[in-house]
Amino acid sequence: MNLTLKIWRQKDANDKGKMVDYKVTDISEHMSFLEMMDVLNEQLVGSGDQPIAFDHDCREGICGMCSMYINGEAHGPDRGITTCQLHMRMFKDGDTITIEPWRAKAFPVIKDLVVDRTSFERIQQAGGYISVNTSGNTQDANAIPISKIAADEAMDAATCIGCGACVASCKNSSAMLFVGAKVSQYALLPQGQVEAVERVQNMVAQMDLEGFGNCTNTGACEVECPKGISLENIARMNREFLSASLKG
Amino acid sequence: MSVLDSKIPAGPIKDKWTSYKDKINLVNPANKRNIDIIVVGTGLAGGSAAATLAELGYNVKAFAYQDSPRRAHSIAAQGGINAAKNYQGDGDSTYRLFYDTVKGGDYRSREANVYRLAEVSANIIDQCVAQGVPFARDYGGLLDNRSFGGVLVSRTFYAKGQTGQQLLLGAYSAMNRQIARGKIEMHNRHEMLDVVKIDGKARGIIARNLITGEIERHSAHAVVVATGGYGNVYFLSTNAMGSNVTAAWKIHKKGAFFANPCYTQIHPTCIPRSGDYQSKLTLMSESLRNDGRIWVPKNMEDVMAIREGRKKPTDLSEDERDYYLERRYPAFGNLVPRDVASRAAKERCDAGYGVNATGEAVYLDFASAIERYGKEQAKIQGINNPSAAKVYELGQAIVEAKYGNLFQMYEKIVDENPYKTPMMIYPATHYTMGGVWVDYNLMTTVPGLYCIGEANFSDHGANRLGASALMQGLADGYFVLPYTIGDYLSDDIRTGKIPTDSPEFDQAEKEVKEKIDFFINNNGTKSVDHFHKRLGKVMWDKVGMARNEKGLKEAMAEIKAIREEFWKEVKVPGTADSLNPELEKAGRVADFLELGELFAKDALTRNESCGGHFREESVELDGEQKGEAKRNDQDYAYVSAWEYKGEPADAVLHKEELEFNDIELKQRSYK
Ligand SMILES: Cc1cc2nc3c(=O)[nH]c(=O)nc-3n(C[C@H](O)[C@H](O)[C@H](O)COP(=O)(O)OP(=O)(O)OC[C@H]3O[C@@H](n4cnc5c(N)ncnc54)[C@H](O)[C@@H]3O)c2cc1C
Ligand code: SF4
Ligand code: FES
Predict the structure, then answer these.
(1) Which of A142, B105, B298, B671 has the fewest CB atoms below 10 angstroms from its CB?
(2) Among all residues of chain A, which has the CA nearest to that of B181?
(3) What is the ipTM, given to two decimal places?
């Protein structure tokens, strides 16, 4: 198929940036979206132009690097997938596709479609861990049975890949789904209880400091989240936060 | 005489590690504060090492080319991690894990290292659970296990199909705790481009800030390289797009020997390639072989009918199918080790039985498993005489719970529902057993330079068993390196900070800058990918699943020619002082073009078949094992450690003879 691409070009963080039109031809429906971008970049290199910078690595939906806002949706039109898992069969010949970076104050653009997500790093550093030394002198792994239900729920929360689609999809640029997922994982496990109060307070404080917006329960994040992280995680975090405030 | 000293401690294998730890020199906590360690790579190996070293009190500087340590390629590991916990009571033990790993590696690994790996494996699980890693559990609340290829016990711990992700997030959380305390200085989006040696010791690195393009100097008392495997030398592999050999290759050029480059794992269960535009291949976890049965049609007419779309695989009755692994290897069936499974698939496809248009695909079928689980569930739920549809529904739910995310991944890529029609799979490059040579301390041939995780060569011999890479990465980083590096650093407590304004740093930085300037100014005619794809094709065709003398010699010559053309014709757009992915790729492909030739040379030198390395000249000619790979212990029971001498073809071979005192050398049989 033949396509028109409207792509955000921005030289660096200080550049104003603009949309630029490109054409690609003979795109196979079996290609992934990023393979289509490879074709375009190969074309640009061939003609002496600057290829489009975009983040990607694993190309199988798990590393969380890829981050394109396609036709007004984070990770594009399909559901439950990342940009790298999007396939061209979702488009038709003659389509015009708009491709932009994540847009959020806390994710400044570095170049073209690449954004800076280190704000997520700092939130994790504020409390996204259990304070146990890696010395190996811990108790036997089976010493504390954990119900399968709790373990599975914790696992569901833990599958967040830190891509930032939730933030990009939210009109307030809220990071509640991302933070809620981490808080929930630990809140559901006995290992996480000891530091529960400090964890939720510190992570939320850092989130606010980074300039992410408030959650107004629009639910857009859940819809676009490639890993199906549910809004329940936000509710759980709110409960944790409330009870932490009561405790002190 | 070999210059290699593997420094294996004396004494019985069971006591080596313990007595070693009792005797090594330690650095007191006050002195650790004055010692800097660079860790390049934040996958399971680097991430766990960085966190632990920081906890111990060292000042750690960590580097990764992604924008977060959490995105290292370890994140993609699906199936699980082995540990000799014997929770299932099925006869597992440290010895058995050790034995399985040595046998699975086709008797080409170092016994003492493997034993230590098995010994610390159980602690890994304890550690990860303490960190909040949500491993799968059974209804009693205890940890669940599955089994993986090449073994007869269930010792694999898993977190759905995302085990690597959860383990890495565990290590990442441990890192975050240390970053917050200021004990780890994390450098994301940085690529190591050289190591700096002073007085023969590794004392720092040159790294490029990938956003600003700035070339930076970083010094330390020791350098740890944990940069993963080099499977992308094949262009197409299951590795991440950025996975590379650069750090390992640069240290090789500075004196670290490179061991067994030809030992590569071609994984049997990957999604077949679909076109020339393909940028990477996707693994379908080996855990699927627990429940999936592999087959091709028995009759050529059915193969043709399927390829032309006249028949569907589900139209074929049981006796029209050739479950070739079950046929050839009744004892292990679908759970033979990876190298065996891959070659068997190639054998069937070469014989013309491949089931897709390219002729390179076999089926992985879940129908039997769905039925079996469905019946089991019906019984558990007390449903008498369930309908076929009910059985299917119940069975599908179980399969979905076990492998749901893999099935979803398959469906998104191939656009077919694997619950209804069998998956198509074909082998693809997946893992590199070869890597930087290290001694028992995980130190390379350069003092103060360590190599851990997939980047080193030490534990998997000529073939790695499933779920053992994650185990090795975490064993190296959490439990081995933190001890062994202390022994070395105990001499450095009075050294003080290493300055970065020395002539050695000047020189290393100059070389790095010159290379970058060359790329930017070369103005050639062909893109980096053009060369990478050509290299990959030579590697796959001539240094792939089956190798022979003629092909390997051709490969060496062809790779050299591609390399020469690359340096003339490569075109890298953009500037050096900005984010420039083409420039990053150029540097990596330049190194692959050198490694590829050494890889072929190593394969040529090793005229035996062992593990993932299959020489057509070396097969069993008769008996029960007829046609199977033939190892030659008489002449090849050694590690090939290559010393850099300029051109890859001029590399000098050093042999580390392998001694097997605790395991008898035997022909592997999975029959
Ligand atoms: C799809 C897939 C599935 C797998 N499944 C399993 C499984 O189920 N069980 C199992 O045991 N094993 C599995 N493996 C193998 C296993 O995941 C890897 O061998 C292991 O995770 C490697 O870990 P590592 O820490 O050595 O390297 P990696 O995780 O690859 O990390 C490399 C690190 O080095 C950094 N880096 C690389 N080059 C540079 C440079 N030049 N400068 C700076 N930084 C650099 C990267 O940023 C990254 O942080 C799988 C592998 C793949 C590809
Ligand atoms: S919650 Fe979902 S959308 Fe947000 S970062 Fe995690 S995986 Fe991405
Ligand atoms: S590239 Fe890793 S999730 Fe898309």
Answers:
(1) B671
(2) A125
(3) 0.98
Q: What is the DSSP letter of A231?
A: T
Q: Which residue of B has its CA nearest to A39?
A: B277
- Cβ <8 Å between B68 and A117: yes
Closest ligand to B192 CA? 1
What CA–CA distance (Å, rounded) separates A178 from A189? 18
Q: Of A60, A89, A151, which has the smallest distance from its Cβ to B76's Cβ?
A: A60
What whole-number distance in Å separates Cα of residue B457 and Cα of residue B439? Answer: 10
Domains of chain A, CATH where assigned: 3-110 (3.10.20.30), 117-133+143-247 (1.10.1060.10)
Q: Which residue of A has its CA nearest to B88?
A: A142
Residue B238: closest CA among B437, B460, B79, B356:
B79
The full DSSP string for B605-616 is H--S-BTTB-BT
* A58 contact B CB<8A: yes
Structure confidence by residue, pLDDT tens digits, A75-125: 999 999 999 999 999 999 999 999 999 999 999 999 999 999 999 999 999
Residues of B in contact with A132 (CB under 8 A): 127, 130-131
Distance CA B106, CA B658 (A): 12
Confidence tier at B490 by pLDDT (50, 70, 90): very high
pLDDT tens-digit map of B57-100: 999 999 999 999 999 999 999 889 999 999 999 999 999 999 99
The chain-wide mean pLDDT, for chain B, equals 95
Ligand 3 centroid, distance to A57 Cα (angstroms): 6
* B596-607 pLDDT per residue, tens: 999 999 999 999
Q: Report d(CA B521, CA B247) in Å as an integer.
A: 24
CA distance B65 to chain A (A): 10
Domains of chain B: 25-79+101-135+159-265+430-492 (3.50.50.60), 279-427 (no CATH), 503-632 (1.20.58.100)
Inter-chain CB proximity B76 and A80 less than 8 Å: no
With cut-offs at 50, 70 and 90, classify the pLDDT of residue B625: confident
Output the CA B656–ligand 2 centroid distance in Å: 48
Phi, then psi, of B83 in degrees rounded to 5: -160, 140
The percentage of residues in chain B with a pLDDT greater than 90, rounded to a whole number, is 91
Active site residues of B: 338
**B360-412 pLDDT, tens digit each:** 999 999 999 999 999 999 999 999 999 999 999 999 999 998 888 889 889 98
Relative to beta strand B59-63, strand B36-40 is parallel
Rounded Cα–Cα distance for residues B151 and B147 (Å)? 7
Q: What is the 3-state secondary structure (H, E, C) of B350-386?
A: HCCCCCCCCCCCEEEECHHHHHHHHHHHHHHCCCCCC
CA B192 to CA B227: how far, in whole Å?
10
- The helix or strand, by DSSP H or E, that contains position A154, with its residue range, turns out to be helix A148-158
Residues with CB under 6 A from ligand 3: A 56-59, 61-66, 82-84
**In Å, how far are B30, B174, B254, B433, B489 from B492, measured between CA atoms?**
13, 26, 22, 32, 5
The reply to whether residue B129 touches residue A129, judged by beta carbons under 8 angstroms, is: no
The pLDDT tens digits of the residues spanning B277-313 come to: 999 999 998 889 989 999 999 999 999 999 999 999 9
Taking the CA of B69 as reference, the closest ligand is 1
Interchain proximity B173–A53, CB inside 8 Å: no
Rounded Cα distance, B553 and B531, in Å? 20
* Separation of alpha carbons B273 and B123, rounded Å: 39
